[in-house]
Amino acid sequence: MQNFSKIKTLSNWIYWILSLCIVIIPVYYLSFWFLINNTDFPLDAITTGATPIEPRTLPTEILAAGYLSSIFPLTVLVFVLLSLRKIFQLYKKGIVFSLEHVALFKKTAKLLVFWVLVSIAYESVKSVLFSLENPPGEKVLSIGFGSDEVTVILVAAFVYVIAWVMDEGRALAEENEMTI
Predict the structure, then answer these.
(1) What percent of the chain has pLDDT above 90?
(2) What is the pTM of this model?
(3) CA 81, CA 131: separation in Å to the nearest integer?
């Protein structure tokens, strides 16, 4: 029972951390695009790959397009965080194995894979936007799939398998309750 109390306490902390992330991450995305011209941080340091960009300020239209393109991965990421928060909310309440957990784990796994796909598209759009005002022949379309994306897909696969195992355990527990 002491471990169960620790699970509730830790889940409560994780729940609040996830809640904080749900607020902070959208603010970060918004700040990234609207403060990029007003920071000393060099623009070429935040692009991926060897994009040939000369230091300059980006026009408002490009900033707006960049922010609009960031809404898709941001939205999926927020849904991932909301799904994880619901999982820890159930743990916080002392509900450990339920059908809702299984559904939330499966949903989280699918959202993580979708987030990878949308993030690849977002990074590609970003590479075009950052090089849009480059001279002809120096505009860049960068499409990347690297170790970060592979890692997230592996995590999604693990989460999906955990959901599957939890569902089997839940079914066995229900079966045992009926036979006693």
Answers:
(1) 52
(2) 0.83
(3) 32
